[in-house]
Task: inverse folding
């Protein structure tokens, strides 16, 4: 089955700096890659996603890049703010004839230092 | 639109008991997926229901089961609870295709004593 590796597990950056989280996946047929943000006591919230026919997608301070050849995708957050502190998960939608569930990375705890 | 709702939010059970969790998807969504989240294993897919039929199942024992009703609401059941079943159980709903966005509920925190 699909395997998603996510790095780093913890990332501490100064407020205003950029943060980058990287993920790799194993199933070359995966074609959908969402990123979720989870705050304490809440369920994961989708922040951005990318489909395999696109190499990059941007939404204000957040961008995601996808390299299908290398099977990796990354989340970029610019001008970080205290409210960006949370756990971020990448995920991939594996191939299969049916509607498989998302395979998630282990998460990155992003800490924004004031 | 109202988001995904899950009840109850917190549950405490003892080993050997069974538990039923409930999920109401976003209006118009016919797919409901269940995930287990633990500090050690992270987020793991349990199963997905679409139009009252289980479409896919993750790698969990048969003690974990679910169902979906005609109004798309879903329940999951865990029988013969074990200590290791303590986790946050998340429900997610989406539209009909595999690449539709999944929207998560707040989860049910289950503690097994």
Result:
């Amino acid at each position: 089955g699909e395997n998603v590796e996510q790095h780093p597990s913890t990332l501490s950056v100064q407020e205003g700096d950029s943060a980058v989280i990287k993920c790799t996946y194993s199933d070359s047929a995966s074609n959908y890659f969402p990123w979720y943000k989870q705050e304490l006591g809440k369920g994961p919230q989708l922040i951005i996603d990318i489909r395999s026919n696109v190499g990059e997608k941007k939404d204000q301070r957040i961008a995601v890049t996808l390299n299908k050849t290398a099977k990796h995708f990354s989340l970029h957050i610019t001008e970080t703010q205290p409210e960006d502190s949370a756990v971020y998960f990448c995920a991939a939608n594996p191939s299969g004839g049916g509607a498989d569930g998302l395979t998630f990375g282990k998460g990155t705890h992003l800490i924004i230092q004031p | 639109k109202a988001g995904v709702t899950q009840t109850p939010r917190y549950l405490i059970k003892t080993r050997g008991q069974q538990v039923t969790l409930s999920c109401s998807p976003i209006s118009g969504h016919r797919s409901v997926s269940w995930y287990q989240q633990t500090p050690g294993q992270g987020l793991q897919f349990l199963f997905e229901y679409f139009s009252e039929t289980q479409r896919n199942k993750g790698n969990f024992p048969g003690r974990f089961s679910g169902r979906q009703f005609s109004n798309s609401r879903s329940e999951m059941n865990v029988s013969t609870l074990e200590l290791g079943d303590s986790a946050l159980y998340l429900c997610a709903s989406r539209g009909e295709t595999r690449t539709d966005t999944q929207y998560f509920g707040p989860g049910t925190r289950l503690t097994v004593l």
